[in-house]
Amino acid sequence: MTTTLPGNVPTVSLERLPDLLRAMPKAELHIHIEGSLEPELIFALAQRNNVQILYASVEDLKRAYAFTNLQSFLDIYYAGASVLLHEQDFYDMAQAYFVRAAADNVVHAELFFDPQTHTARGVSMAAVINGLHRACEDAKATLGVSASLILCFLRHLSEEDALATLAQALPFRDKFIGVGLDSSELGHSPEKFARVFTQARELGLHLVAHAGEEGPPAYIWSALDVLQVERIDHGVQAVKDPDLMQRLARDRIPLTVCPLSNLKLCVFPDLAQHNLGALLDAGLVATINSDDPAYFGGYMNENFTQTFAATGLTAEHAYQLATNSFEASFVDAAVKQVWRDQLDAVFASFAT
Ligand code: HPA
Ligand code: ZN
Question: What is 2-38+85-349's CATH topology?
């Protein structure tokens, strides 16, 4: 069986679709680097740093990864991050992620990090940012993966705390490209962070925010109109509001969708009911991402292959998702063109 693709995109047999999904170059734009901490690394760092953790073994910890909603995950995610103390810990965590990303043919990654989770425990901003930044530089040099950092504010904390965090990060302004908003969504609408996002915009930083993961379409409107973000993280609740869908399509506001995350946090009852296909078919710049791969059961290629197997998305959608990930990334147009050419070469090599 074959699928017809638009324009000059070659036709690819459905049997070869999983291999194509794995082989095609892609950008990852929604990955919390603390969410890439594998249980084995949590235990190794706990031992190295003499930090007590609540679980007796790796298996014991993995058994706790049975989430019912976002908050049930966040409680365990913050506990896992407590083993990170020194610059080298942040480096090791990011380096392990980049090895996985390179294996999945991720050519570019924009990494979220949560400094408040660490500075609240007495870890310096320098240790966090310098460790992550050094790993980004080495990923480019040794793995050919380009990477940059996006500093996220925790929305369950106050805007004053976010403002203080931005001020603390300013000595490292050249080591991160943007700011985002994450953590507990319900009850913490984006406009709570209007002033800190204005400051970030005036500093020339890129702006993104989680909105419409569990929260209503109104939070997506607020992220767009009040915070003036360039991308929406998750955004899957947008389908409930036709006017919002039109706005997202018209302004080509990307959505960084995370299917396995949505499954594990019970945003959708099963992957077959995920609305990614509907978002793409409505003309939105939707992308696939892993969110917190160590907790949600898969990195990029698992997100692609499992979602396609469950929903029946086609090679045409695969091409769209890869080009969307390049379009949505914060890099120069010339670099995006290089990746699109690489994508075309991979599709050509899979042509029937
Ligand atoms: N949503 C909100 N906050 C988060 C997430 C998420 O999916 N992952 C890590 N922090
Ligand atoms: Zn996220």
Answer: TIM Barrel (3.20.20)
